[in-house]
Design goal:
With 126 residues, this protein is an all-beta fold. Helices cover 0% and strands 52% of the residues. The radius of gyration is 14 Å and the shape is globular. The protein starts with a strand and ends with a strand.
């Protein structure tokens, strides 16, 4: 199983970036996926997660610091996930990781996710 994140880069504060994650080796349709990030000298933190509820509905859970600015989306047919990041701030600077879970439920804890991508660097200048 591989998760390939891309789309990171350098952007000025207030700008936007769109991260993409392509999964291969298994389908994540119906399974939780999320984005985590880790800034230099800080612990890895949960950013946003998406888990299946019923039918075609997925619950989206955003950490408070990104609510209203970041949007997670999934294309289950293509086995991909994206993170649209708007109004970026210097404190959003981090390596962003695309992750997926093997079970049907995962919370905000990193240990709940079994598959991790290599990360993509996002740098926001002030």
């Amino acid at each position: 199983v591989q998760l390939q994140a891309s789309g990171g880069g350098l952007v000025q504060a207030g700008g936007s970036l769109r991260l993409s994650c392509a999964a291969s080796g298994r389908t994540f349709s119906g399974y939780p996926m999320a984005w985590f990030r880790q800034a230099p000298g800080k612990e890895r933190e949960f950013v946003v997660g998406s888990r299946w509820i019923v039918g075609s509905t997925y619950y989206k859970d955003y950490t408070d610091s990104v609510k209203g600015r970041f949007t997670i989306s999934r294309n289950n047919a293509a086995n991909t996930m994206a993170l649209q990041m708007n109004s970026l701030k210097p404190e959003d600077t981090a390596v962003y990781y695309c992750v997926g879970a093997a079970g049907f439920y995962a919370s905000r804890e990193a240990r709940g996710y079994d598959f991790w991508g290599q990360g993509t660097q996002v740098t926001v200048s002030s």
